[in-house]
Every structure is written in structure tokens, then in C-alpha cells.
Amino acid sequence: MLERILAVIKKERTAIIRDKPTMVMSLLLPLIQIVLFGFAISMNVRHIPTAVVDLSMDIASRAYLDSLVNSEYFDIRETLLSQLDAKKAIDENRVQAAVIIPSDFTEKIDRGDGNVLIMVDGADPFVSLSAYNNANIVGQEHAISVLKETISRVPGVSELVTEDPLEAQTKILYNPDLTDLWFVIPGLIAMILQVQAIALVAVSVVREREIGTMEQVLVTPITALELLIGKMIPNLFLLLANLALILFVGVIYFKVPFKGNLAEFIVMALIYILASVGLGLLVSTVSKNQKQAFQYNIMLTLISLSVSGFAFPRSQMPVVLNWIGYLFPMTYFLPMVRGVMNKGIGIGLLWPMACMLVIYVVVIIFLTSKMFRKQLD
């Protein structure tokens, strides 16, 4: 059995080495992906292009606009004359937000019921959410400062407003500055490895079937399970090289901290790669050609990104989508890679997910060998 598996491994290794364009692309594509995503993805949008319609034009309105600009979330690009002009500027994509200050702004501030209108381009979810949240925060902070300044002018009570009556101290663990890349890079590592594993293995098996070399292998005494194991191992080493490259870029270039134990992480990543390779083999058994294998890979990637916890919290998903998420190895690996890199925790706390991945590997290889044997028959 071992000799037959080693023979398949040698054959696969030779095929990978000879196909230099595919090998180079397999190594370069993950690097390109992590660099592009690392620069492009930002959930905390700053410097939002903003238009201003200031109908008050006084000290109070300028103070409010200064507080918006000083927050670094809003950049005033245009000063317009009416709300209609502001909406047109958003429609024409010249700005993504507009602040309309009424003419009686100062009088209403003095009466304690001042208000401004902030229009936000809702076509971009990240921009709209960032603008909405930060406009509210800036407004509240500005209102408190105005209130404290007003009260401080009242004789006998100025000493009462030197400090806020209540201060909520919030401590954010593991990522105190809420740096986007600290969230994004671990998820990208999981996503890229799964996509690459499915693509490499599925296309490799289907290509052999298309060019006819699979039939030559089948005349040997090798079993379906031995053939699958032999095909998995060379791709496993290629994917480990991918992991090393993208981890190096994430930690060294993007300065994402790696707080956990590297050896434990490699073991957990190895199990995850095995699970992803197994999923790729399963895709190869149901794909009739390379085009179909690519289509299945794209479909599985889109579904797994939606239900694994990569983009959306699984706690907010319906029960059905939660169960669908368990069909993808990324669902189990995401808490592991984030736990090791961001939190510094190890296998002592992550063993339930690691055990689930081991079970996943056994089940997926068993199913694939059964389906593969049925195809051969």
C-alpha cells in the first residue's frame, strides 16, 4: 500500500514541478490576493468627502463644522447653497455625505433644541455606516461641550461642570486601536487557503481525467483511497508554502501581530489544509471538466464567505444558515486563526474546533473515496 501511495506522490510531484506556470501562479496568486485585500478592505472609513450647506454662517455653526473635521471622519470638499444642491452632489458622486445647517441654528442651540441634517449616500454600506455612527458621536460630544460651556457661565455652578457626571470606561481586548487589518488578515489567510486547496486539487484530478492519464493509473492495483491520499500529499506541501508566504506578508509587511504559538498554529493549519484538500477532491468527483470545477469552487467560496463567519457574525444568522456553515472547513478554522494571531491562545482552548476539523477530514476523505470508487466502477 505504501509503495503505491509513494508512486502516486512521486507522479504528482513531477507533474507539479513540470507545470511551472501553474506552480508559479499557485504561489504568487495568494500573495497578490492578500496584498490587494489588505490595502483595499477597510471597515472603518475615514475622510468621507462631505458637502456643507451652512445657512447660519456664525460662530456656532463653524464650531460644529470644526468638530466634524477634527474627528478625521469628514473632509469638507464643497460649500453649497441649498439642500437640493447637496443631494445633487451626492447623486453625481462628488461627495458621499452632506451637512445642512439651518439658518436658526444658533437660536435653537441657545434654547437647547438645535439640530442639523446629515445626508449620507446609502449605496455604499461601509461609508454610510461609518458616516451615520460618527456623525452621531461627534454631535453628542459637541452637544455636551456646548452644554458644559453654557452651564459654566452660570454663577455658583461652574465648579460642578469641570468633569463629566458619568464616564463609561470601555476596554477593547486584543485590538485596542480597532485596526482593520488585525481583523482582516487572519480571515484572509483562512479564505485564501481554502480557495487555493479546492482549485489546485479539483483541477488537477479533473485535468487528468480529461487528458486520459487517469485511465492509465486505474489499470494498476491501486485503490481509490490510496490514489486520493497520493494526490493530497504533494498539494499539501504546496499549500504549506502558500501559508508561509501569506503569513510572512501579513505579519512582516502589514504588521499584524502573531501572539500565539507558531508550532501549534502550523499543526492546526495543517489539519485545515487537509480538510480543504478533501473538499477539493470531493469537488473533483462531481466535476466533468475543469470549467465546471472552477464554477463549483466559486460557488463554494461565495457560500462559505457568507456563512462561515468571515464577513458576518454567525450568532446573528438563522439556524439553517448556521448548519450550512458547518459544511465548510473555514467555519472551524476562523476562530482558530483569529484566536492564535489576535488573542494568543492555543490548542488548550481551541481543541474543540481542532477535533471538529479532524472529524471533517475523516468524513470528507471517506465520502470522496466512496464516490470516486463508484465513478471508477
Task: Describe the protein in words.
This protein has about 375 residues and is mainly α. The chain has 2 domains: about 1-40 and about 180-375, no CATH class; about 50-160, abc type-2 transporter like domain (abc type-2 transporter like fold, 3-Layer(aba) Sandwich), CATH 3.40.1710.10. About 70% of the residues lie in helices and about 5% in strands. The protein has 14 helices and 4 strands. It has helices at about 1-20, 20-40, 60-70, 85-90, 105-110, 125-150, 180-210, 215-220, 225-255, 260-285, 290-305, 320-325, 330-345, 345-375; strands at about 50-55, 75-80, 95-100, 115-120. Strands 2-1-3-4 form a 4-stranded mixed sheet, with helices on both faces. Strand 1 (about 50-55), helix 3 and strand 2 form a beta-alpha-beta unit. Helix 13 (about 330-345) packs antiparallel against helix 14. The protein is elongated. The two termini are about 20 Å apart.
Along the chain, the helix and strand elements come as HHEHEHEHEHHHHHHHHH
Structural class: mainly alpha
User: How many β-strand runs?
Assistant: 4
Distance between the termini: 20 Å
Strand adjacency order, main sheet:
2-1-3-4
Q: What's the mean pLDDT score?
A: 81
Task: Give the low-confidence spans.
Answer: none
Percent of sequence in beta strands:
5-15%
User: How many DSSP helices?
Assistant: 14
Major β-sheet profile = 4 strands, mixed
Helix content: 55-70%
Number of domains: 2
- Principal-axis shape equals elongated
C-alpha-based Rg, rounded: 28 Å
